[in-house]
Amino acid sequence: MTLSHADEYPIHQTPEPIAFAGTDRNFYDRYFFNGYAPDGSGFFALAFGVYPHLDIADAHFSFIRDGVQHSLHVSTELGMERMSMRVGPITIEVLEPLNALKVTVEDCEGIAADFIFTGRAFPIAEPRFIHRIGPRAFMDYTRMTQNGRYSGWISIDGDRREMAAGTIGTRDRSWGVRPIGARDQQTMPGHAAPQFFWQWTPLNLDSGSLFFHVNADGQGQAWNTRAAWAEEGAGKGELHEGEGTLTSTLQDGTRWPAGGTLEIDAPGAPRSLTLTPVQRFQMKGLGYTHPTWGHGLHHGPLKIEREQYVLADLDPAQIDNRHVQILCRVDGDAQGMGAFEQLALGPYAPLRLEGI
Q1: In a domain, 199, yes or no
Q2: Coil, strand, or helix at residue 238?
């Protein structure tokens, strides 16, 4: 039996020590942050994941300056200590549960940052994501999401810049089962070709926070979707759930969103919003679909790598370039800014997508 610092806290969910998270090797526990200035500049994001059954943790910090996306990738062996909120130079500190967190990136490979996130309202709990491919559980996880404000700075190669006044964004916490680590080579009979469609629009509006997401099959039938509205300062019992419809198009020759129209039916929420793209962020900068830095891969006791690429030079047909967050200006029944995240793999009839 392995005891860790977490066992000192009353957070157990099973009779086992916290070091053991059930029996599924794909169990994970993750933090995510994104942020941007009110004019859409200075986009940054961070992902921090713990994989108990793989005994690995990894973290990624990525931001855009002058059309170039810079990323710092870090992976370490966990040592079965889940209360360690540090991966190499990247640390997360919970200042106030469900409201305020601090992220520190110690100077490494020329990249450093220090910032605090403070929520605009109590976080929403999204519907449990359960999806099977045949009899096999592909996903089974829970996620909470919260919009908020940032203060702090980001530095690259000695060029330190304070975050603009009014910098806002979104953070989430998710935990459960999803594909991580080395890919399972065993195919599922009747399901040889992968298909996955995801859209997510956490929006920071002047009067509050609006959230919408959809997971759908190749014909466009949603298997997980919901809209939620939180007025500025809303507490735990003051969040409003509802439904939404996102009508979107693609940039020519890509699987990247070209904007869209969001129709919402939730108490107190704006009814109709238009999303107009401002800039594109590649999610591979946080390890998502990255061929080398995919989540949960083993790189030894500690490995760190800096990476950068010119956004205008990327091939939209390349698999690892398809998962994006498009920062959008929001107009209509309310105004603001927000991210439009999309990943479209395989066929999706509403957008006339075929093949991989």
Answers
A1: yes
A2: coil
Q: How big is the CA angle at 163 (ends 159 and 169), to the nearest 5 degrees?
A: 130
Retrieve residue 128's tokens. Answer: 């449990």
The tokens for 172 are: 């989430």
- Rounded to 5°, the CA angle 113-281-161 comes to 30
Q: Residue type at 109? A: E
Res 134 pLDDT > 90: no
19, 80 contact by CB (below 8 A): yes
Location of structure tokens 């070091």: 19
Q: Which domain holds residue 80?
A: 27-176+194-351
**Tally of domains within the chain:** 1
How is 262-284 classified by DSSP, letter by letter? EEEESTTS-SEEEEEEEEEEEGG
Domain assignment present for 202: yes
Number of CB atoms found within 10 A of residue 329's CB:
16
Collapsing DSSP to helix, strand or coil, 6 comes out as helix
Q: pLDDT tens for residues 77-103? A: 999 988 889 999 999 999 999 999 999
Copy the structure tokens of residue 68. Answer: 């170039």
Helix (H) or strand (E) holding 152: strand 136-156
Q: Does the pTM exceed 0.90?
A: yes
Task: List 76's β-bridge partners, or say none.
Answer: 57, 302
Cβ atoms of 181 and 188 closer than 8 Å: no
Is 15 part of a structural domain of the chain? no
72 neighbors 303 (Cβ within 8 angstroms): no
Q: How confident is the model at residue 186 (pLDDT cuts 50, 70, 90)?
A: confident
Nearest to 328 by CA among 257, 277, 281: 277
Rg (the chain; Cα; Å): 20
Count of CB atoms within 10 A of residue 108's CB? 15
- What percent of the chain has a predicted confidence (pLDDT) above 70? 99
Of the listed ranges 115-119, 147-151, 187-191, the least confidently predicted one is 187-191
Tell how strand 159-162 and strand 129-133 pair up.
unpaired
Position 261: which residue type?
Answer: T
Select from 251, 195, 202 the least CA-distant residue to 228.
202
Residue 183 forms part of a structural domain: no
Strand-pair partners of 328: 277, 338
